[in-house]
Backbone:
């Protein structure tokens, strides 16, 4: 029992405190690959602390939804992280918690889009409409990955699903990981789908939705985005790593794979340009097709 508590405590502390570090590492890697020094590695922590100390400026056209949406997003992401442990001995779960996990990830995006529409700004409404459109394809990809896990493991418990062996389904694993990596870029607003450094251009998506947020609410949004990045990297790492029998070793391997994924995102952002907005849905739909092919391979296998 004490060991189980230790695993849960480790997973919980990583979930609470590591996401901004991963975002800082991504930005640092991107800057280094572009020949720049870049911001400090801990800059996301500094930004959150600084924003929490600032005063909020709230438009008179907004309602309570605008104020509570960022908090709801953070809470849903943290709850989703509770169902996604680094190893077989985590917080636990229940049969069918994969559906709950999927729903929690979608609820966060839903409330962010609602808050953008609540401002009455056409600019933020434009970003919200694009976010919802991209989410239709990206959530389909995530759903297909979960179906593959359920098929291979024969379980609907997320902890048991992620501990299943893919030894005879390596092609399906590769397709699912590739599709999920593309979804991670979409969900976290990274290149080539979105540019996290240009909030004022007309083809913006995520940053266009949070243009009216300030102070602590903007801090919650930034923390929520880093948490979303952490969760997707953790999910990919769990798909790539088989259960080694040692829970602590598996957690160390997961953190190593997550760091490599973040570095890969930084390399990708430094070498590719942003896709034209009209072509972005095609690429996202392609990720869904990859996972659909992986699911078909698991069914045939």
Residues:
């Amino acid at each position: 029992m004490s060991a189980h508590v230790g695993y849960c405590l480790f997973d919980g502390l990583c979930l609470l405190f590591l996401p901004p570090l991963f975002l800082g590492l991504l930005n640092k890697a991107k800057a280094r690959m572009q020949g720049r020094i870049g911001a400090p590695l801990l800059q996301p922590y500094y930004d959150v602390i600084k924003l929490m100390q600032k005063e909020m400026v709230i438009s008179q056209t907004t309602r309570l939804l605008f104020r509570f949406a960022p908090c709801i997003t953070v809470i849903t992401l943290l709850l989703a992280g509770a169902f996604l442990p680094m190893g077989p001995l985590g917080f636990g779960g229940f049969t069918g918690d994969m559906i709950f996990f999927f729903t929690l990830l979608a609820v966060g995006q839903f409330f962010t889009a609602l808050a953008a529409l609540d401002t009455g700004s056409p600019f933020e409404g434009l970003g919200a409409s694009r976010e919802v459109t991209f989410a239709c394809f990206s959530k389909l990809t995530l759903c297909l990955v979960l179906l593959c896990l359920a098929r291979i493991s024969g379980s609907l418990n997320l902890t048991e699903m992620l501990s299943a062996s893919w030894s005879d389904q390596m092609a399906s694993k590769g397709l699912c990981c590739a599709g999920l990596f593309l979804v991670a870029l979409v969900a976290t607003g990274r290149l080539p789908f979105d540019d996290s450094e240009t909030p004022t251009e007309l083809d913006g998506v995520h940053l266009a939705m949070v243009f009216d947020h300030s102070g602590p609410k903007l801090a919650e949004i930034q923390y929520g985005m880093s948490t979303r990045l952490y969760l997707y990297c953790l999910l990919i790492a769990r798909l790539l790593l088989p259960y080694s029998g040692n829970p602590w070793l598996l957690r160390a391997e997961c953190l190593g794979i997550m760091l490599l994924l973040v570095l890969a995102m930084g390399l990708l952002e430094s070498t590719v340009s942003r896709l034209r907005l009209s072509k972005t849905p095609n690429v996202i739909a392609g990720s869904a097709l990859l996972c659909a092919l992986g699911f078909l391979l698991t069914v045939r296998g």
Remarks:
- The chain has a mean pLDDT of 87.
